[in-house]
Write the structure tokens for this entry.
Amino acid sequence: MKLPQKPEDKSKLENSISYLLISGVLLSLILLITGMVLLWQKQGSVAISQDPAVYVHGHDFFSFIYQEVTNGGLNGLPLQLITLGVVVLLLTPYVRVILSAVYFARERNLKYVFITIIVVIILTISLTLH
Amino acid sequence: MTALAAVSVYLFSGLLNLTLMAPIAAGTTIGALFGGRVLNKINDRILQILFLVIVVYLIVTMLYKGIISL
């Protein structure tokens, strides 16, 4: 027999997932807009540039984040802020999948925990193997 | 999530232009947040006319840029 779940607990986790998504998107939006404004002040225009510095490179997503946070300022603060905005925007769905795995584990829904963990593994492989 | 897996390929191939990507990401995010709220309140007829105006503007600017770059 299934035990009835506490409704407050369930909605709490669902709320935390929605807060995570909103805060991730808003944080990346703030970083992108700040970076664009600083770039506009520095260069006088926000036209599409063909400069090699605006093309981001990386080998592995997680080492790319580390490298960007530690010495990403080589190409100037505006480009670093825009890159961090991209990183936050890309990390948001990744963290969301991990959080939903936790959510299903709390719900003791083993089938969905299994599926979500497979999704996390596939995402990690696709972000790592480059 | 599927878009995340797809964009990582572009990111690591060095095909992601930050000056191109930043306005698109900011614009679509603000547009999605704002548009979702406005869509329920706006009249269908006004929406059709607005869409027509925007698409015609895009057609004209694309044609103009294509012609002057010849």
